[in-house]
């Protein structure tokens, strides 16, 4: 099993939302990335300290 934690989260989402399609579950998992740090400041790119873009901070929280 390559990613049991993601499979488990998908199963929990499916149980909570039985009408959601596999694409909707994937979207819910992939659109949960944080855009602010713990001090509510926008995330910065580690390479040059500029404000990060969606490509710099990733696709999902898990």
Automatic annotation (TrEMBL):
Q: What's in the keyword line of the UniProt record? A: Hydrolase, Protease, Signal
The protein's name is: Subtilisin-like protease-like
Please give the SUPFAM superfamilies that the UniProt record associates with this protein.
Subtilisin-like (SSF52743)
Pfam families reported in the protein's UniProt record = Peptidase_S8
Identify the domain of life.
Eukaryota
Cross-referenced PANTHER family: PROPROTEIN CONVERTASE SUBTILISIN/KEXIN
Family under the similarity heading: Belongs to the peptidase S8 family.
Give all residue intervals belonging to the Peptidase S8/S53 domain: 1-41
Enumerate the subcellular locations listed in this protein's record, separating them with semicolons: Secreted
An example GO biological process term is: proteolysis
Which Gene3D superfamilies has this protein been placed in? Peptidase S8/S53 domain
Q: What are the GO cellular component annotations? A: extracellular region
Q: What are the protein's GO molecular function terms?
A: serine-type endopeptidase activity
Read off the InterPro entries from this record: Peptidase_S8/S53_dom, Peptidase_S8/S53_dom_sf, SBT
Mainly resides where? secreted
């Amino acid at each position: 099993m390559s990613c049991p934690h993601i499979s488990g989260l998908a199963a929990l989402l499916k149980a909570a939302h039985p009408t959601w399609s596999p694409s909707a579950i994937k979207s819910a998992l992939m659109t949960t990335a944080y855009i602010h740090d713990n001090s509510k400041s926008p995330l910065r790119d580690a390479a040059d300290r500029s404000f990060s873009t969606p490509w710099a901070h990733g696709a999902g929280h898990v």
